[in-house]
């Protein structure tokens, strides 16, 4: 795998307060897990960036290598991997996601 893909991923993760690697895009998610994550994030009103892993196989494989996380979607807040759909859902249900997002945008 080209190291430049990993460098581009790291740049996006570090540059964006909330970065979501997903299948499809927020307007047209290509899997239920990605759609659920978008729905959760949109409820808070904070901006987030996305990258469609289906559009580039190198990114699809690269993000898994970068994060050492095997599944998509992957959510990063303040440069830190939060996890996938199940973890984001749990954080949302327990009321722990909003403080994380708020802290990211206060900086």
Task: Give the topology, please.
Layout: H1 3-15, E1 18-22, E2 24-25, E3 28-29, H2 32-44, E4 49-52, H3 57-67, E5 74-77, E6 80-83, H4 85-93, H5 97-106
Parallel strand pairs: 1-4
Antiparallel strand pairs: 1-5, 2-3, 5-6
Helix pairs in contact: 1-3, 2-4
Residue share in β-strands: 15-25%
Number of helices: 5
Secondary structural class: alpha+beta
User: Order of helices and strands, N to C?
Assistant: HEEEHEHEEHH
Gyration radius, rounded: 13 Å
CATH topology: Glutaredoxin
The count of DSSP E runs of length 2 or more, i.e. the number of strands, is 6
Point out poorly predicted stretches: none
Average residue pLDDT: 95
What fraction, in percent, of the residue positions are helical? 40-55%
The CATH superfamily title: Glutaredoxin
Largest pleated sheet: 4 strands, mixed
Distance between the termini: 34 Å
CATH architecture: 3-Layer(aba) Sandwich
Q: What is the CATH class name?
A: Alpha Beta
The total tally of domains equals: 1
Shape: globular
Strand order of the largest sheet: 4-1-5-6
Overview of this protein structure:
With 107 residues, the chain is an alpha+beta fold. It has one domain (3-99): Glutaredoxin. The chain contains five helices and six strands, in the order H-E-E-E-H-E-H-E-E-H-H. It has helices spanning 3-15, 32-44, 57-67, 85-93, 97-106, and strands at residues 18-22, 24-25, 28-29, 49-52, 74-77, 80-83. It has a four-stranded mixed β-sheet. A hairpin with a 2-residue loop joins strand 2 (24-25) and strand 3 (28-29). Helix 1 (3-15) packs across helix 3 and helix 2 packs parallel to helix 4 (85-93). The chain is globular. The termini are far apart. The model has no long low-confidence stretch (mean pLDDT 95).
């Amino acid at each position: 795998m080209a190291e430049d893909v990993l460098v581009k991923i790291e740049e996006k993760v570090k540059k964006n307060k909330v970065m979501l690697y997903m299948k499809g895009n927020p307007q047209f998610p290509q899997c239920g897990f990605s759609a659920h994550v978008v729905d959760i994030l949109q409820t808070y009103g904070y901006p987030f960036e996305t990258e469609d892993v289906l559009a580039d196989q190198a990114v699809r494989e690269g993000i898994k290598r970068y994060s050492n996380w095997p599944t998509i979607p992957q959510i990063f807040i303040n440069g830190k991997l939060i996890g996938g759909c199940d973890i984001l859902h749990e954080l949302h249900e327990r009321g722990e996601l909003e403080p994380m997002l708020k802290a990211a945008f206060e900086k």
